[in-house]
Amino acid sequence: MIEFLVKKLELFFITLFILTLILFWAHIRLGDVEINKIIPEYIHYAGNLVTFNFGNSTESGMPIIEEMKLFFPPTIELLLLSLAVSFCFGIFLGIVGGLNHHSVLDKCVYGFCLLGSSVPVYWSAQIFILLFCIYIKIFPTTGNISMLYDVPRYSGFMVIDVFIQGNNEIIIDMLKHLTLPLISLSLVPCATFARITRRATINLTQNYFIKAAYCRGESRFDIGIHHVLRNILPDIVQKLNIIICNLYSSCILVEVIFDWPGTGLWITQSINNSDGRIIETTTFVLGTSFLLLNITLDILSTLVINRTRLTHG
Amino acid sequence: MKIFVFLPLLVLLGMFLPAGALASVSEGINRDSLIYCSERNISHMNPQRHPISSMASSISFAVYDRLLSIDPQTKATRSAVGTLERIYHNDTIYVFDIAKNISFHSNEFFTPSRKLNAEDVAFSFDRIINKDNPFYRPLEDFPYISHMDIVNNLISVKAVGPYKVEFKLKQPTNLLQSFLATDNSVILSKEYADTIIQKNLPKETIDHYAIGSGPYTQYNFLRGRYVKLKRFSDYHGHRPEIKNLILTNSYRANKLLYKMFTGECHIISNPTASQMSFLQKVPKDFNLIRKNTLNGTFIIYNTKKPYLSTGALRRTLSSMFSLEELNRSVFFDQGHYIVELFDEDPSSFLKIQNDSASASSDLALEKDVERELLKDADSRRLTYEKSDKFVNMFNEDIPDYAIPKKDLPEPGHDLFAHELSRQEYLEAYEKLKQQELEITIFQSNVISNTAHSKIAQFLKSNFEKKGLRARIKTYRTNQGQNRIKKGLFDLAIVNVYSDTESLIYQMISCKQNNRRRSSLSPNISYTGNYTGWCNDTVENMYEDLSYLDKNDPDAIRLQKYIMNILVNEMPVYPLIYNLNLFVAMEYVEGVEPTPYGGVSFINARIKHEGDKK
User: Fold this and answer.
1) In a domain, A269, yes or no
2) For a designed S-S bond to B335, which of A44, B379, B576, B583 qualifies (C-beta 3.0 to 4.6 A apart)?
3) Within an 8 Å CB–CB cutoff, is residue A142 touching chain B?
4) CA geometry: angle B139, B144, B145, nearest 5 deg
5) Cα dihedral value B47, B168, B543, B341, nearest 10
6) Is the same domain home to A157 and A206?
7) Within this chain, do residues A282 and A254 fall inside the same structural domain, yes or no?
8) Are strands B267-269 and B469-476 parallel, antiparallel or unpaired?
9) How far is Cα B505 from Cα A100, in angstroms, rounded to an integer?
10) What secondary structure letter does DSSP report for A224?
11) Residue ranges per domain, chain B?
12) A23 and A123 both lie in a single domain
């Protein structure tokens, strides 16, 4: 296990080094760096990045770290909520479909999985806007809260801040703003979770312990929770890093479409304004967080698989 | 099991649908707040740091005061916070009296201890011209003045009394007052600047956390997204009715319209031409506010390229498309010809274009008459320029074709272009045919630029119909601008937002700007002139024009000469300018367009339910 951890850390540092090299290459293309000072410049540059000393925005001249504090929490908030919603609903649908194999319900779940995986987020988001915002007029099109409300900044996470403030009208407004981005973003991972879970559940139901549980008269709910869910988790954890990576890339699109004030919108604005410093910083932060996430999930899935092997061994 | 299936769905529906329904009720008319959505980015809270734009102008009117302003009716400058007291020392020193008892706003970093005075006015302009000022920035960081020659002419701005400020110029000019009346020329607080230094805050604080003396004070600003303003209780002028004002931006044109439909915006700026045709069908829900402001679209030719180096080549290329057709197909006939701004008859300009197109046909006989007129004009030309008002001796340099056909040209008098001979035309055509022309456009989600790709498609298809080869190259705004500055283009479609005086001048000026950033290419020679075309005669004429009153017959004549030279040389091709348009919800009243394309909310109000009936 230690050898595995060391390998993963090695991989992390090598990738991080390559990432900083690419960013430095972009940096020297944008700025003026003398060729004979390139190595000290790189060391200085990479040192600043890893110590979170990102400097100031090219366009505004203000510290990037301050802007980052404003734009990162809404993205993390949307990602976590979306992950939670898609995880719960996807697994629920997958188990329901798997336990009712060949039934109408299973076909519906399967249809949802196909549809959800096939519809790109930039299309579904626009359709939702057209349908729910323009025609039915029940949801707003942009932002995470109405411009008319002022929510004090406690944590930076709108959901938490709004609940701390405790104004019902603002809570409703926040939920209203959250609904469409959340549904748009959760659709694909939800379908993916459902597909994985359904397949795992179908395989699992062939096992004797499930049949025994049926024979014991356990309800499907109990079987789903106590037997199926526990056993399909390793399958899901293995796929989690791919799902999260896809979720993050979709999140940037969703943020742009719904003007959600997160990193996606921030990057897009920075690209439009050719603000090199912000582009470099966000690439570094996102790249590093991806790396960390991947390694953590790799370790987690290895642990889960080992535990399963030990349990079954 | 069914409960197991439907319970989460019911919970989800129960959570979101009532939320939507209830929230849509609370979204109704809020009488105290107004949301203005613009296509322009809110990069700074100081209009000095913006180009001339609807957003900068709106911020200026909401948050700041200006020394002078522009009368909406007469378009002449008039007093605002300052009043012109006197001009002396051979018209190079201007002294302004500053109004008293004007309070500044306060914020978390700063509480003012005094009222606005001459020190504040001096500081606001000194930071632009004086390198020793701690808040000095390169000229490029003040985009609205980067094309104005006035900054190079300004020696100093200083307080000569508690309420008297003096502007010292190198040479006399009539541009100072119009510069001071620009919406972007706002008055900042010197005391605030001192506080920023004392508290060791970043210098950029002055441009992000606004302290002005306007009717609204900033209380929340998220760069690139929105600024929230609230009514300033100590405002010296008329108290606005709207308590909270929110200025926000959206990059995409369709988004602005969506937000209007969902009630997320009460006023939007500059809908696209296609949206206008839709909005005009539903007039009862919206108020359409029009303002005749300058936002012109031009083609600029790179005259350094051998195949675009002569006037004949450029005119031949310009004759390959019809401006009227362009207006019809791209702007839905909503555009206005830029030549109208110079009191020129568009049909005269279009005639020149069409004449060039038909130069290959035999029109020699018809043109004999014009040749005769040219001959007459040639014999008389020196009698007109011997005026002591002119400082430049350009009489000998004026090309024949620049001399108008009448003694004193009147507004609306035909432009005069020499006819391209069949041979000239064919030579030019053959030369152009050998090259694949690159049409450069800037990719931007800013609405005013969305027409550019359509224009480029239109040009490409017209060129190809005439047997020329063309390709469209799209660049991100800054990247494209850098390429244009380095001369890496054939023809580019650009948008220029400026007053009439400097609209064309900035694109053909020979004046060098020495205050460019060192990081930019040293090849950059001219302030905003990327055509590579520079004509000393035109330059001198523009200089003389700056000393003359607009309505002076000599000024009209000079303007005419310039136009004639430009029509013949054609380093830039004026296409269309758009009216500044604002669409407000029908219950929003009193929104007034500002001279530089923004809106003033000082008289804005939201109609009550009772009023509607």
Assistant:
1) no
2) B576
3) yes
4) 50
5) 30
6) yes
7) no
8) unpaired
9) 76
10) I
11) 31-64+214-292+580-613, 79-201, 296-577
12) no
Cα gap B484→B494, rounded to integer Å:
10
CATH for B79-201 is 3.90.76.10
Q: Are residues A167 and A205 in the same domain?
A: yes
Domain membership of residue A22 as a residue range: 1-53+275-313
Give, in degrees to the nearest 5, the angle at Cα A9 between A8 and A10: 90
Cβ–Cβ gap B220/A173 under 8 Å: no
Report the complex ipTM: 0.80
Q: Can B31-64+214-292+580-613 and B296-577 be said to share one CATH topology?
A: no
CA atoms within 13 A on the CB side of B15: 13
**Closest CB from A62, A139, A259 relative to B202:** A62
Return d(Cα B306, Cα A20) in angstroms, integer. 44
User: What pLDDT score does B409 carry?
Assistant: 43
Q: Which of B15, B43, B258 sits opposite A134 (nearest CB)?
A: B258
Interface test with A, best of B40, B46, B137, B204 (most A CBs within 10 A): B204
The model's pTM: 0.74
Phi, psi of B469 (to 5 degrees): -105, 140
Cβ-defined contact of B207 to A61 (cutoff 8 Å): yes
CATH class of domain segment(s) B31-64+214-292+580-613:
alpha beta
The pLDDT of residue B294 is above 70: no
A295 and A149 within one domain: no
- Asked if A90 and A224 sit in the same domain, the reply is yes
Chain A contact for B223 (CB, 8 A cutoff): yes
Helices within B88-174 (DSSP H only)? 118-129, 150-153
| Rounded Cα distance, B101 and B117, in Å | 9
Closest CA to B565 of B512, B490, B508, B489: B508
Q: Which fold has domain B296-577?
A: Dipeptide-binding Protein; domain 3 (3.10.105)
Is the Cβ pair A273, B478 closer than 8 Å?
yes
End position of a domain, from candidates A219, A238, A261: A261
Examine residue A64 and state whether it is found in any structural domain, yes or no.
no
Please give the distance of CA A279 from its chain centroid, rounded to a whole number.
20
User: Contact B188/B120 with Cβ under 8 angstroms?
Assistant: yes
Residue A304 resides in a domain: yes
List the CATH number of the domain containing A249. 1.10.3720.10
pLDDT per residue as tens digits for the range B385-430: 434 555 555 555 556 656 554 444 444 445 666 667 777 888 888 8
Kindly report the nearest CA distance between residue B601 and chain A, in angstroms: 17
- Of all residues in chain B, the one with the smallest CA distance to A138 is B20
Apex B540 CA angle, B538 and B546, nearest 5:
105
Reading the block at residue B412, the tokens are 């609306």
Residue B181 CB-density burial (10 A; 0-12 exposed, 13-18 middle, 19+ buried): buried
Number of domains in chain A: 2
Half-sphere exposure of A170 (CA within 13 A, CB side): 17
Residue-wise pLDDT tens digits, B477-491: 666 667 777 788 889
Could you tell me if A108 and A137 lie in one domain? yes
Give the distance, in angstroms, between the CA of residue B158 and the centroid of all CA atoms in the same chain.
29
Residues of A in contact with B222 (CB under 8 A): 70, 261
Question: Which chain B residue has its CA at the smallest distance from A145's CA?
Answer: B264
Same domain, A16 and A163: no
Domain membership of residue A28 (yes or no) is: yes
Residue-wise pLDDT for A127-154, tens only, equals 999 899 888 888 998 888 988 888 888 8
Query: Which among A60, A137, A265 has the least Cβ separation from residue B24?
Result: A137
3-state secondary structure of B288: strand
